[in-house]
Amino acid sequence: MVIYVVFIYALIAVIDPYGLRKKGMKRDFMVCCALYLISFALAFALSMHWEIPSPSPLFVDWVKKLY
Predict the structure, then answer these.
(1) For the chain, how many structural domains are there in total?
(2) What is the pTM of this model?
(3) R_g of the chain computed on alpha carbons
(4) Which of 8, 29, 49, 54 is the most buried (most CB within 10 A)?
(5) Contact 52, 67 (CB under 8 A)
(6) Is the pLDDT of residue 38 over 80?
(7) 50 lies in which domain range?
C-alpha cells in the first residue's frame, strides 16, 4: 500500500502544479505544493497504519473554557 501511495503522489506532483509554474503563478504554485505535502504526509501516515491524533479534544477544551 505504501508503494502505491508514493507512486501515485509522485505522478500527481509532476502533472498537477506544472501548469501553474509555467503560467508564472508563483503564489498559487507554492500553495498547491504546501497542500500537496500536507496531503502526502497524511496519506503516508494512514498507509503505514500510524495513529493520527484528533484535534477535537483541543477544540472541546477551548469551547468549555469559553462557557
Answers:
(1) 1
(2) 0.61
(3) 17
(4) 29
(5) no
(6) yes
(7) 2-66
In angstroms, the CA 16 to CA 11 distance is 9
Mean pLDDT of 43-47: 83
Confidence category of residue 19, pLDDT binned at 50, 70, 90: confident
For residue 21, what is its C-alpha cell?
A: 509554474
Task: Give the least confident one: 3-7, 16-20, 23-27.
Answer: 16-20
Residue 65 DSSP symbol: H
Would you mind telling me the total number of residues written for the chain in this entry? 67
Q: What is the pLDDT of residue 46?
A: 83
The full 3-state SS of 7-60, as one line of letters, equals: HHHHHHHHHCCHHHHHHCCHHHHHHHHHHHHHHHHHHHHHHCCCCCCCCHHHHH
The whole-angstrom separation of Cα 58 and Cα 31 is 26
